[in-house]
Amino acid sequence: MTLMQRNQPQDAQALYDPRAASYDDSWHPRFARHMVELANLKAGEHVLDLACGTGLVAYPASAAVRPGGSVTGIDISGDMLAQAEGKRVANELSAVRFYQHSITDLDGLPELEGEQFDAIICASALVLLQDPSNAIRQWTGFLKPCGRLIVDVTDPASQISLITFERVGRALGRHLPFYRVPFQKPEHLRALMEQAGLRDIEVILLSQMDNEGADALDAYRSERPRIEKTYSIADADRLFDKHIDHWAASALAGPDIRNEARRLFREQWTKLANADGLIEEVDGVYVGIGWKNK
After folding, report:
1. Quick one: which H or E segment has residue 239?
2. Which domains does the chain have, with CATH numbers?
3. Where does the Methyltransferase domain lie (predicted)?
4. What are 6-47's pLDDT values in tens digits?
5. Three-class SS of residue 209?
6. What is the phi/psi pair of residue 166, to 5°?
7. Which residues pair with residue 281 across a beta bridge?
8. Could you tell me the maximum CA-CA distance found in the chain, to the nearest angstrom?
């Protein structure tokens, strides 16, 4: 299976539909609020929430742009959108609307024709896209002059066993539905935003996981990623077995390739070890904020 043969919208549905009912029972609501805070929204502004999921960005954003503002949410997962729509109906929010559509094909959504937004927020989704550069360029076209895009990517040492699977898949030509490998440094996110024509780009490091009950944005800002766990080289087989039968790793689970995938996983895992033979997993996400020219 090659990179171009994957169907990203189908992958996203398969990944998120089963998680919809419990998605809010995590760190995601707090992280979404932090993304909204970084957007520095104002009353009367119009916001596009990409990969809006259960509405974790949309609803704090809608509160921030009252009165006179609006939020448009787009997601490919019908089950996630059902959760978001239920909140909209329960709270009688007429200035929030949702559409089921791929965030990589905004030009194909008739309801967006001719529309531009003061802010576009995409939380926890860019690393699911096969061509993030093209996506950011397309999204920038939906910004008003002087509008801003807020988007994030995880540190390559975050969820380190999963990115190791991604590297194995790439080596074997059987790519998984994650695309974190291109973002090895925060500068890589900055470069994509610059290539899309955005300016005054700021990249901020945040922690994702809960921080001893803290909720304020400043409590999650950091100068360097926080070490969350340490592993040994000997943990490779245990972690391989833990994840290999998950749907997302199915391209590597077949009897024709499983043993070779295990061998490459061990090899890639060993390369991650520091001088003490330890592999450090961190908690860190880079949030990029960029502005469109006048």
Report:
1. helix 236-243
2. 3-291 (3.40.50.150)
3. 42-155
4. 788 899 998 899 999 999 999 999 999 999 999 999 999 999
5. coil
6. -60, -45
7. 229
8. 59
